[in-house]
Design brief:
Radius of gyration: 36 Å
Strand content: 15-25%
Low-confidence stretches: 17-33, 172-204, 230-235, 381-390, 509-523
Strand order of the largest sheet: 2-1-22-21-16-18
Largest sheet: 6 strands, antiparallel
Shape: elongated
Distance between the termini: 24 Å
Structural class: alpha+beta
Length: 578
């Protein structure tokens, strides 16, 4: 749990601890009746959240945690250029930026486009005209990696993705049976640099290149099947093709028109590959290739090999072994998402549609709709110590503050001040409930001196004389004593009550690693932590809105009673033996 004391955590109502007795349908007891939240439960860490991580649904009037809402993708955008990408483009091109946004494969820093010849021949031209000329390359300003290390250069500073795709396509050997137009489309264009690698044999092609070869072979077969038309006959048809053989068999086989139509709907078998360039060729290991890899590994060392993060950064780098073979990785797209309540599908969080804006258009925070709790010691032990003659640093003050909460003695009563702040614009009535002894292996006695009290609204006007009654504020601060049934202090929209705690004694047997028989207790790792479960019930009168009036049939502007109840855990400190 949290290490800094004191702290406050909220339990979402969607979490329910189940046991074999509650799962059994023959059990007559209701598991929700008189059930105390156990902060030492093995599942408690998955149900407790701080205030800033919780949202609130104003339709259900309940707290919502990450398990209570669903996320919907509003749009995709590139974090580097802030360009919004349509969802259709993401489905077709993938979840990476297709513009000029690339990251370093070594340190993941953004890459910049630079020119090899940045000087200009016209010295009389204005400074704005000094634009770098080609060829261009990508360089990292952090680790000084550049695309020149892997032999990649560009003739244009734009359309980097298209040039890289053509470079990858240029490594593939064309099929002999392919038409001249197909070869021309796949051949490197004049936009590629002269340092582009030459075509490699199929046995040395990477896995993605071999897959692209099979994909082209499959598309060619589909094109041949569709070019024959509904009759299965074309001008340049090959009588040895499966379509021609199927057409001849259907003509001389005595099939009817319905049978012919049904046969044409079936997928026709594909021909076999004419050579190894069209078909699938398994990866063949040669002794020379392995010897080359071993020699390079001895030369480069372990620092020259790629890590798992670098290999999974981009599909081009999946099979790369050494860092000098890494290709630049395109920037991953980000999403802007809205959150909806799982119960009523109401929007509880929605960001602004503009890319450069980080604010939310709708965001219903739980801390703006439920009371906020704060716990502190009534009379800290450090107050009796002499004051320091020098000014303490913030770190020293925080360390001294934490020491006060980490020295709770067993059996010695300690009084805390619990402050509740009302964020609503209506006055509320609070009811606090806590078990007599805290659950867990170490039982500490807890008493709330004033369990029921009202809190004023969060408005700009308040009357201190009207709320002074019922408070123990008549005496001085040093002589004041907590009284049962009275609040300690009260303000405009906050109230402070006294909570008395008697820490339990640490049992060494209870703090062992043996698990309890019921499975509800922890293994004793945090038994010395004093965590107080408090059940809070809030009641208030709110005006009926137009939407609520249409749903419930009540008159608009009338008052209706609302309430919300939830469990919270107060981290009071740590128990230490004498």
């Amino acid at each position: 749990m949290t290490a800094t004391f004191p702290y406050t955590l909220i339990a979402c109502p969607c979490t329910s601890f189940t046991s074999p007795s509650t799962i059994n349908p023959s059990s007559v007891e209701d598991p929700d009746d008189d059930t105390t939240f156990n902060p030492h439960h093995i599942r408690a860490n998955f149900s407790l959240y701080p205030y800033e991580q919780l949202l609130y649904c104003d339709e259900c009037h309940q707290i919502r945690c990450p398990r209570c809402w669903t996320e919907e993708i509003l749009n995709w955008f590139c974090p580097s250029c802030l360009f919004e990408v349509p969802s259709s483009v993401v489905k077709s091109d993938g979840n990476r930026c297709t513009r000029n946004c690339y990251s370093c494969p070594t340190c993941t820093s953004p890459l910049s486009i630079n020119g090899l010849d940045s000087s200009t021949k016209d010295h009389l031209a204005p400074p704005d005209a000094n634009q770098p000329t080609g060829p261009f390359f990508l360089s990292c300003p952090y680790c000084e990696w550049s695309s020149l290390d892997v032999g990649i250069q560009f003739n244009k500073p734009t359309k980097i993705t298209d040039q890289l795709v053509r470079m990858r396509s240029g490594n593939r050997s064309p099929s002999p049976g392919r038409s001249r137009s197909t070869r021309t489309s796949l051949a490197p264009t004049d936009e590629l640099s002269s340092t582009e690698p030459h075509s490699t044999p199929p046995s040395s092609q990477p896995s993605q290149d071999r897959f692209a070869t099979l994909s082209r072979f499959y598309k060619d077969q589909m094109a041949d099947a569709s070019s024959a038309g509904p009759t299965g006959y074309s001008d340049n048809s090959n009588f040895n093709s499966p379509n021609s053989l199927a057409r001849i068999m259907s003509i001389y086989g005595g099939l009817s028109h319905a049978a012919l139509k049904k046969a044409r709907e079936r997928p026709q078998p594909m021909r076999e590959a004419l050579d190894a360039a069209e078909g699938l060729e398994l990866l063949s290991h040669s002794d020379d290739a392995e010897a080359t890899v071993i020699d390079k590994l001895r030369t480069e060392g372990y620092e020259g090999t790629t890590t798992l993060t670098q290999r999974v950064s981009h599909p081009y780098n999946h099979r790369v072994r050494f860092t000098d073979h890494l290709w630049p990785t395109a920037t991953l797209l980000r999403t802007r998402r809205s959150k909806r309540c799982r119960t009523c599908r109401h929007i509880i969080a929605r960001p602004e549609p503009k890319m450069g804006n980080t604010r939310y258009k709708i965001r219903l925070l739980a801390q703006n709709n439920i009371p906020r709790l704060a716990l502190r010691l009534l009379s800290p032990t450090a107050s009796s110590a002499p004051a320091s003659s020098f000014a303490l640093t913030p770190a020293a003050l925080q360390a001294q503050h934490n020491t006060e909460y980490e020295k709770l003695r067993p059996g010695l009563p300690v009084q805390f001040l619990l402050t509740l702040t009302n964020p609503l614009f209506e006055p509320v009535r609070i009811t606090l409930a806590t078990p007599a002894t805290t659950p867990g292996n170490v039982a500490s006695r807890v008493t709330v001196l004033c369990p029921t009290f009202p809190i004023g609204a969060a408005s700009d006007m308040w009357d201190p004389d009207a709320i002074s009654s019922g408070t123990a504020k008549d005496q001085s601060t040093e002589d004041r004593q907590p009284e049962a049934g009275k609040v300690w202090e009260r303000g405009r929209n906050w109230t402070t009550v006294v909570v008395e705690v008697v820490p339990g004694r640490l049992d060494k047997k209870a703090g062992s690693t043996t698990e309890s028989t019921t499975g509800d207790e922890s293994k004793g790792a945090d038994d010395d932590m004093l965590e107080i479960p408090v059940f809070i019930r809030v009641e208030w009168e709110a005006e009926v809105t137009a939407e609520d009036a249409a749903a419930t049939g009540a008159a608009k502007g009338t008052k209706e009673s609302r309430e919300i109840a939830f469990w919270s855990v107060l981290g009071a400190g740590r128990i230490t033996e004498l």
